[in-house]
Design brief:
The structure holds 2 protein chains of 2 kinds. Chain A is an all-alpha fold. Chain A has helices at about 1-30, 35-50, 70-90, 95-100, 105-120, 125-145, 150-180, 185-195, 200-215, 225-230, 235-240, 245-260, 265-285, 290-310, 315-345, 360-375, 380-395, 400-425, 440-460, 460-475; strands at about 60-65, 70. Chain B contains 20 helices and 2 strands. The chains are: A mainly alpha, B mainly alpha.
């Protein structure tokens, strides 16, 4: 057991240690010293990132009786999750200021969420997976509700209810899977089902499992919650909420699709259909919206659907495109929410409120504009390469998916329309009503750094694509 | 000498200058910005002329950019490769020339926010040059998408401080959004075609590459090739435009400021024609030959329908915009002939129409600037107050309706000859026979424009307007000179092919 810890679990343990430290500090430290909570979190995350170097990846390592695993795939996702956590904790300055006394508790919950995210990716066991997902969800409720006011409580409660439904779906699928195979361990399930003709039960169970997992990412039948949740949540938490769960859940869903659940054709078609419906719902919903946060909620849902379509058509090549898309997407999204964080959080963030900001703060608004353009898939940004790479994966999956791809491509036109709706007021000449931005260094750093990465990946994509391919081929 | 001729410099110089101009470090003095940009455009034009002078059609310019010793996306076989053959060379020089004219014409039309304006104009130029010279499908697509953003701002921007209704303001924004959405819709369908072409070429040919030279004549099954061709044609058809996809064009061209209209009609539409040439005509000849008769019928509809539509317009800019669509139909018809004459006619008409439409939009802009009005029912007798403009207008309008001595005459005649000689299908001959009398329609609407606005009773309201200034004289003079030179010596372009 000690071997397991030293071989792959040091980053997890480090994060766990810092969670306990934050909880202790929350009792003993005076509320006046609230601002050090952020520093402790950042220190914890950075040391966890450093400790990732100790994780054994070659060959795959299974710990705790096969319930956790580690390879280069989980290492990459752990790294991305921690990096997102690092950026998000830099953005929490304004939020922590409003909840002074609870700052340390807040950051303990924040670290717990990261811990859960890392655990989800490394899970090799449906029970571990279930517990980690619940941990992530429960931390998310508190994080969402941490902002003062009615809307955040409403958002947290809605998230709780929909999460309960998705958990139910997931458990339903797992129970069937246990009935078929007599095991909840992913490796065992793979061994048992690999050489069998898939039964109806197996298909139902795998559909339920995957739907349960991805309904947390706002796919079609379970998508409406995302509007209210995004409306009511503080932007630094949104930066977290739109990246870490997405990384963690797509991390595990892709791995499930690649090896234990890969021989069900029904699953592929259900997922492709779900993805298409999600894209349709999200992209058309946002057309008439005026609230920036709601538009980004729809954009998050739409992006999840593109990734889902590529992920459902299982192949190693598709996996590499999914990883690349997720990496690019995470940076764009953090950048976008960093800008909203700088802009300051209000309940209503109408697109007109941003009128003429470009002419007041060229650098910051320019970085934001680059990220929005990247989300829309305009060239010289990583979004363009990521979209082409992802769609190329779908195109290579056979003529039968061409109609799906065509539909997605046409829906991205609607996406461009709402991204333009966000973008254009920034350049409007009439700048009455908007105030100029004031940002501290940490916020500026996150915004500019992530936007810079977006551009750099757009210009030199080869290195990152090569990395993603290496990881996908080594799974 | 040839070591100074670099394609990356030709394409990325405007991009670099645009970043320089928009950066906060650059001067805010609007006059300096304007003169600096004009200098850059002039330099670029001279540079492209230099490249033309050293051009040798047996050895087209080829240049490949590596990033850290790797191809752009090596694992997907996407190379950042540029190739300038004869068609690209002609269109590159045309682009450079039209942008130079547009920058000269900008002086009186753009009053506000010139830093942003010139940065966007330079960025658009880079994107268009990239389209004309790309040697790889994905690089082509990259520039195709890149052009959207500057084009949006140029069409929808508020460059006059909203002083006059119509040219700026809300309508301009809407038509810019319309332009972007139409183009993006087309380009997404086009992307599907590109991806399919790329994958079928990879699986059947075994070469992981997206460059045009590796895809020519790849053994893709005809049914798939037709599917790909349809996808690509929808993408290019939006830009060209082919008739059911054209409705963005009159709005965008009417609401954009004069120099931007010149660029849009003069060069941007040609990217669609160039795309059809590069992808369908050259890369997938088999499917193009299947599609050519249908396209020829669409081209004929383009010519007839928009001629009637243009006749019904009262706004002079809309007349010119519809005449552009009509002329693009002629370019398409030339290409559909699928022979040497048709292709060279098509290329020649791209240049001729580029020049004519620049001149026409300039005239419309000058009239609008002076009279604050573009309605031919209200305008009357301005020839009395602007005799020099009148002279230019008569000559350029005569050129546009295909009078001998001017360039469009040559290309119209060659297009018809090309279509008549086509051995693809009888439909081509049919369209050629019908398009010849229909070209008379162009003289109807153009002469109506001339007649109604310049002749007639001189209105008192326009008594105080001035004749054209030096800037405008230079633009119109350059256009006219080009039209006459190519009209007298068409071999300058026809000999390139």
């Amino acid at each position: 057991m000690l071997n397991d810890i030293f071989n792959i679990l040091l980053p997890h343990m480090c994060l766990g240690g810092f969670i306990i430290l934050q909880l202790i500090l929350s009792i003993i430290v005076h509320p006046r010293l609230y601002r050090y909570a952020r520093l402790v979190s950042i220190f914890g995350i950075v040391s966890a990132i450093v400790l990732l170097a100790t994780v054994q990846t070659e060959p795959q390592y299974f710990a705790f009786k096969n319930s956790l695993m580690s390879d280069s795939y989980t290492l990459l996702f752990d790294f991305m999750i921690l990096l997102c956590g690092f950026f998000c904790s830099l953005l929490t300055r304004n939020l922590v200021k409003t909840i002074k006394g609870n700052a340390y508790t807040f950051h303990a919950i924040f670290l717990t969420a990261l811990f859960a995210g890392m655990n989800i990716v490394s899970a090799n066991d449906f029970l571990t997976l279930f517990v980690s997902i619940e941990l992530l969800s429960f931390s998310s409720y508190f994080l969402i509700a941490s902002r003062k006011g009615y809307y955040s409580k409403e958002a947290a409660f809605k998230y709780l209810l929909t999460s309960a439904v998705s958990t139910g779906l997931f458990l339903f699928g797992v129970s069937y899977m246990y009935g078929i195979t007599g095991s909840v361990n992913l490796s065992d399930i793979y061994e048992i089902t690999a050489n069998q003709e898939p039964s109806v039960m197996y298909s139902i169970s795998s559909i339920m499992i995957v739907l349960g997992l991805i309904s947390k990412l706002a796919v079609f039948p379970f998508a409406n919650w995302i509007i209210d949740v995004y409306k009511g949540t503080e932007s630094s938490i949104l930066a977290f909420l739109s990246t870490v769960p997405k990384l963690a859940l797509f991390g595990i869903v892709c791995r499930l699709l690649v090896f234990p659940l890969n021989n069900s054709l029904e699953l592929t078609f259900v997922l492709a259909l779900v993805s298409l419906l999600t894209a349709f719902w999200a992209n058309t919903y946002a057309i008439r919206e005026k609230n920036v946060k709601v538009i980004f909620a729809c954009s998050a849902s739409a992006n999840a659907s593109y990734v889902l379509l590529a992920a459902s058509l299982v192949s190693v090549y598709n996996l590499s495109t999914v990883i690349f898309y997720l990496i690019c997407y995470v940076f764009m999204n953090i950048s976008v929410f960093a800008f909203l964080n700088i802009y300051g959080d209000k309940n209503s963030m109408e697109v007109e409120d941003f009128n003429g900001l470009f002419f007041k703060n060229q650098g910051l608004t320019g970085a934001y504009a680059i990220s929005v353009l990247a989300l829309a898939g305009i060239p010289i940004t990583s979004g363009f390469i990521a979209k082409i790479y992802l769609f190329s994966a779908i195109a290579s999956s056979g003529l039968i998916f061409v109609p799906f791809l065509l539909a997605l491509l046409l829906l991205t036109v609607a996406a461009l329309y709402y991204y333009l709706k966000i973008l254009l007021p920034l350049f409007a000449k009439d700048c009455s009503g908007s105030t100029s931005l004031t940002a501290v260094f940490s916020q500026k750093f996150v915004l500019v750094f992530t936007a810079l990465i977006t551009v750099l990946v757009g210009i030199f994509p080869e290195i990152f694509i090569e990395l993603c391919r290496f990881i996908a081929y080594n799974i | 000498m040839e070591i100074f001729l670099s394609i990356p410099f030709l394409i990325f110089m405007p991009l670099a200058v645009s970043l320089l101009v928009i950066s906060p470090l650059f001067t805010r003095n609007e006059i300096v910005v304007r003169r600096f940009s004009k200098g850059v455009f002039t330099f670029h034009f001279l540079y492209s002329i230099l490249m033309l002078a050293f051009f040798d059609k047996a050895n087209p310019y080829v240049s490949e950019i590596h990033f850290f010793g790797l191809d752009w996306v090596q694992s997907l076989g996407i190379k950042f490769i540029f190739k300038i053959d004869a068609v690209s060379m002609v269109l590159t020089v045309l682009t450079s020339f039209v942008f130079l004219l547009a920058s000269i014409a900008s002086k009186f039309n753009i009053r506000e926010n010139q830093k942003f304006y010139y940065a966007m104009l330079l960025l658009l130029m880079s994107a268009i040059l990239g389209i004309f010279t790309a040697g790889d499908m994905f690089v082509f697509f990259l520039f195709w998408e890149l052009e959207l953003i500057p084009a949006y701002f140029l069409i929808g921007g508020n460059w006059n401080g909203g002083k006059w209704a119509g040219e700026t303001g809300c309508d301009a924004k809407n038509s810019a959004v319309k332009f972007v959405l139409f183009t993006f819709l087309g380009s997404m369908v086009m992307l599907l075609g590109i991806l399919l072409l790329y994958y079928y070429n990879y699986t059947l040919n075994g070469i992981l590459s997206a460059s045009f030279s590796d895809i020519i004549d790849s053994p893709i099954p005809v049914s798939i090739q037709n599917l790909i061709a349809v996808c690509l044609l929808i993408g290019f058809g939006v830009k060209l435009p082919i008739i059911p996809l054209h409705s963005w064009l009159p709005d965008a061209h009417t609401n954009a400021p004069t120099p931007v209209s010149m660029v849009l009609a003069g060069v941007l539409l040609k990217t669609g024609a160039y795309g059809i040439y590069r992808f369908n005509y050259e890369t997938m000849p088999e499917s193009f030959q299947t599609a050519a008769p249908y396209l020829a019928i669409l081209a004929l509809i383009n010519i007839i329908y928009t001629a009637f539509a243009a006749y019904a317009q009262t706004d002079i800019k809309r007349i010119v915009a519809y005449s552009s669509i009509s002329n693009m139909g002629l370019i398409l018809l030339g290409m559909c002939a699928y022979n040497r004459i048709g292709l060279s006619a098509s290329l020649f008409h791209m240049v001729a129409h580029g020049l004519v439409t620049c001149g026409l939009f300039m005239i419309a802009g000058i009239v609008y600037l002076r009279c604050k009005n573009r309605n031919i029912n209200i305008l009357s007798g301005i020839a009395a107050y602007m005799p020099r403009l009148f002279g230019f207008a008569v000559l350029i309008i005569l050129a546009s309706i295909g009078v001998p001595l001017f360039a469009p005459f040559i290309s119209e005649i060659l297009t018809i000859i090309g279509a008549m000689n086509s051995d693809l299908s009888e439909v081509l001959k049919f369209t050629a026979i019908f398009s010849l009398p229909l070209l008379i329609l162009s003289s109807c609407y153009m002469l109506k424009f001339l007649h109604k606005s310049f002749f007639g009773e001189p209105a008192e309201a326009y008594e105080k307007i001035n004749d054209i200034t030096v800037h405008e004289f230079v633009v119109l003079g350059a256009v006219l000179a080009g039209l006459i030179i190519f009209g007298l010596y068409p071999n300058a372009i026809l000999g390139m092919l």
